[in-house]
Amino acid sequence: MSAPTHTPETWGLLAEFDTADALIAATRRAREAGYTKMDGYSPYPIGEVADELGFPRSEIGAIMFTGGLVGATMGFLMLTWVSWVEYPLNIAGKPYFSWSMFIPITWELLVLTASVSGVVGLLALCGLPMPYHPLFNVPGFARATKDGFFLAIEAEDPRFSPTTTKDFLSGLADVKSVEEVPA
Amino acid sequence: MATVSAPSTVGEQAEPEFFTDDEHLIGGKQNLVTIGEKIGNVCLGEVPIPKGWWIMFLSGFTLLQALVLGLAWLFYMGVGVWGINSPVFWGVAIVNFVWWIGIGHAGTLISAILLLMHQKWRTSLNRFAESMTLFAVMCAGIFPLIHMGRPWLAYWLFPFPNNMAVWPQFRSPLCWDAFAVSTYFSVSLLFWYIGLIPDFAYLRDHAKNKIQQMVYGMLAMGWRGSAIHWRRYEKLYLILAGIGTPLVFSVHTIVSFDFAVSIVPLWHATIFPPFFVAGAIFAGFAMVIWLAVPIRHWYGMKDLITTTHLDVCAKIMLGTGLIVSYGYFSEVWMAFYGQSVYEWDTTLQRMFGPYGWSYWLLILTNTIIPQLCWMKKFRTNELLLCLVAGSVHIGMWFERYVIIVTLTRDHLPSSWGRYAPTLWDYAAMFGSLGLFLTLFALFMRFLPMLSITEMRELLPRSAGGRDGHAVMENAK
Amino acid sequence: MTEHHHDDSHYVAPTIEANYAPLRRVALLSAVVGTVAFLALGIANASMNAAHGGVRDLFLTYQSGFVFWSLVPIGAMTLMLIGYLCSTSWALVFRRVFQAAMRTWPLMFVLFLPVAASALFMGHDSSFWWAVPAGEFARDHANGDPVVTHEVAHRQGLYLNGLFFLLRAVIIFGVFGLLMRAMLKWAPAAEDEGNAANKSKLKGLGGPGVLVWALLFTVAMTDWVMSVEPAWSSSMFPVVAAMDCFLVTMAFSALVFYSLVGENQTALTIVKDKFRIDIGSLMYAFTMIWAYASFGQYMLIWAGNIPEEIGYYRKRLNGGWEFVAYALMAIHWLLPFVIFLFREVKTNPKSMKAMSIMLLAICATDVIWWIVPCVPHAEDTQFFHLLMAIAAIAMVGGIWGLAFLGQLRKANLLPKKDTAFLANWGHH
To answer: Which of UniProt's keywords are assigned here (chain B) (predicted)?
Structure first.
C-alpha cells in the first residue's frame, strides 16, 4: 500500500466536528468546493452524509435480490430434479412433482442465499476485513466510534493540496480540529 | 458531550430542553459517550461482575453437566433410555425442540418486524433478544438431532451427491425442518453479527488491554464508520429485517407442519401454522421479560430498558396469548362443527382423558393467568410480570406436551397406551436450560448487551443522537 | 419552543372540498346494471336449468355478493377498534370512511334477509345443502357425494338448521351493531373536541372489541361461507377470510379516499408520504398473510387428502374453477407482492387507486370462489355462474355503496382535532 520510501506521505486530511449536523454541512461545503475523494466517519449512520458524498443508493438491494432469486430458482429446480428425475419416490401416492411441498425449502433457500450474498456483498464492497487503515494512525480517530464526527479528504483527490485543503477544512463551521493523516 | 452551541445550518432545530423523551425510552441524562460507557464497560471488564451473574453462570454451568451426562448415556445406550415407546414416539424431546425454537422467535421478531414497524422501543431489547434467539435455536437444534437415534448421520438430511445414490425425501416436513432450522440459525447469526460490527469497533477503540483490543479488533474487521459503509450497512440491515420477518413465520410454520401434514386427529389442523407462530412469539416475549429484568438490575440498565419496555412486552405477550387462545377455541369449534368422529372424540380425550389435567393446566397457564396483564400493575411490576411470564413458559411447554400425548389414544382403542418421560428425558431438558443460561451469561459478560450504535441513534438530537430516525428513513 | 412547535390542542382540520358525484354515479350505475344483469342472467338460468338448481344458483350467487360487501363494515369496525387500541395513522386517515361504512350496518342486515330466506324457506332450492331435512338429504345424495353420510348430516343438523342459523346471525348483527354504535357515539366528542374520557373509553373498547370480533367472525364465516360446503371444515378458513376482510376494507377505503381527495393539496399535505406508505404497506401485509394462510390451508389439505376435506379443493380446482385459482395466485399474491415493493406506488394516489380496484376485484373473485363452486355445475355453465356472481357483487355493491356515500358526505373527510397528529407529524 505505502510506497517503499522513508519520507512520510500524506494519506489525507482529517477534520473533526462535534455534531452530526456540522458534518453534514461540512460534507456539503466540500462537495461544492469540488472535492470528490472524501468520506465522512461517524459513530452511527447519517444518511445525509452519504447523500452529500454522492452515494445516494447502495448496491446491496440488487445484490440480495439477485442472490435470493438465484438461490430460490436453483433450489426449486434441485427439488424438482431430485424428486422427479433422479430419485423418484412414491410417497403416499403424491405426484413426483409436488410443487406445493417444495415451497418450504425453496423459501428457506431464498432467504439463506439472499442473506449470505448480502453479507458477503457488504464485506466485499467495503473492503472488509481491513485490519490496517491509515486513519487508525490518528489517535483522535478512535472518537469516530464514540462521539466524534469526521470528514477526511484524501490526498488522491485531484484538488487536494496540503495547504489550501487544510485552510478550507479549518474554515468550516463548527470544526474542532484538522489533522494530517500519515500514509 | 458536546452541546449544540451555534445554530446549525442543516436539519431540524435542536430542542431547547435537554434530554426530554416523550416516549420514556431512555431515562437519565444519557449522551453519546455515556451510552458507550454504560454498555461497553461491562465487556471491557470495567464493571464489577454482579453476584447475580455468578449465580446465573454457575447454575447454568451445573445444569449443563446434566446435558453432557444425559447425552453421553443416550449415545451409549440409544433412545430406549427415554420414555418413548408405541404409541408415543415423539416425546419430551420434540416438546423441548418446539419450546426452545418458539422462544427464539421473539428475538427475530423484536429485531426485524418491529424495525419494519418503526417501533423505536425495540432498540433497547434487540441485541439481547437476538442473542436469546441464537442460544435458544442452539438448544432447540440439539433435540431433533439426538432424537434421530444415530445423530452422526444427521447430514443425510441434506441433499448432496453421494455414493449411496440416495437423496432426501423432500416431501417430508422433517426434511423441511432441517432446512428451516439451519437457515434460521445462519441468518440470525449473520443479522446478529452485522449488528455487532460497529459495537466491536467501539470496543476495539476503547479496549483496556492488548487482548481485548486484538479480539474485538478482529471481530470488528476494521470497521471505521465510513458514511459509504454505513449506507450499505443500513440497507443490508433493513433487508435482512425485511426477509427475517417472513423467515420467523416460515420457521415455526414448518415446525407446525411436522404435526399438521400428518392425518392424526387434532394434529391435522389447518390453523396450526399461524397458531404455532403466535405461540412462539408469546413464549419468546415471556423469555425476553425474564432476561430483561436481571439485566436491568444487575447492570443498572433501568435507564435504557425502562418500565415502558416491560409494559410493551407485556402487552404483546397478552395479545399473542389471546391469539393462541383463539387457536384453542378454533380447534374445539372446528371439531364440534366438522363433527368428524375422530376429531371430536380426540377432543374429548384431550380434555377428559387420562392426560386431561395437562390440557386444563395449559388453559390455566396460557389463557387464564396471562389475562392479569390487562391490569397495568401486572405489566409494570417486575416481580408480578415475571410470575406471569413464568406461567407462560409452563403453559407453552404443556401446549406441545398436550399435542404429543394426543398420540396415546388414536383411532384404534386396542393400540392405546400411556407415556411417561424418564430421568434421561429430564436430564436433556433441564440440561438444555443449562446450556442456554451458560451461553447467555457469557454473552452478558463479553458482548454488548444492548446495541451501542442504535441506542446512540435513539438519543434526542440535543444529546447527539438522531431521535431514532435512522435505518428506516435513510436505508437506500 | 420555536415557531416550529405546533400545539395540538388548537388544531382544527381544514375542510376538504370533495366531489362525491363521480362516486355516486359509479354506485348508481353498478346498482342498476348489476340488478338488471343479475335478474336477467338469474331468470334465464332458472328457466333453463329449473331441474338442476336454477333457483338455488340465484341464492348462491347472491350470497357471494352479500358476503363480499358485508366484509367492508365488519372490517371497518375491526380496523377501527385496532386503530383505537394501537393509535395507528391509517385509522385516522380512513376514519370517516370506516365510520360511514359502520353506519350502513342496518342496511347490511336487510341485505342479509335473502340469505336467511335461503336457509329457512328454500329447501331443495336453498344455497345451503343442510336446508334439506336430514332424511331427504341422505336419500338425495345416496349416489352422489360419498362424504356426506347420513350421520354427518344428522349430527350437523343440530347446529346447521334454519332457526338456529337465523338466531346466530341476529346475535352477530346485534353484537357488531352494538360495538359500532358505541364507537360512533363516543367518536364525535373524542375526535372533534378532544374529550379525554371518550378517548380512553374508545381505547378501552379496542381490546375486548377485537376479541369479540374474532369469535363472532369465526361463527359468521362458518355459517355464511363454510357451511355451503358439505362436511368441510378448516380452522384456517376464518384467518383467510379475515385477511380478505381487512384487505377489502383497506382497498375500498383507499379507493374512496384517494378518489375524493384527488389532487387536493390541502389533504395531501396532511396525509404525508409516510402515512400513504403505511397504508400501502398494511395492504401489502394483508395480501402476504392471505397468501400464507391460503397456501397453508391448501397444502395441508392436499397433503392430508382425507375425504372430508379434499372435496373442497377438488371442486375448486376442476371444471373451469382452476382458472379462477390461478388468477387468485397471480393477482391476489404475485402482482401485489411485486408492485407494492416500490415505494412510489404507495405514495402516488393514482396508482393506489388502481391497486385498490385490482385488489377489490380479486377479493371479490376469492369470495365467489369460496361459495359458488360448492355445487358441481356442468362444466360449460361455470362461466355463466361466474357472471351471475359478478352481477350479484355489482348489484349489492351498488345498493350498499349509495347508502355508504350518503353517510360519508355528512362530515368533513378529516376529523376536526385528531387530524393534528397527521398534520403535525415530523415537526418538533
So the answer is: Cell membrane, Membrane, Transmembrane, Transmembrane helix
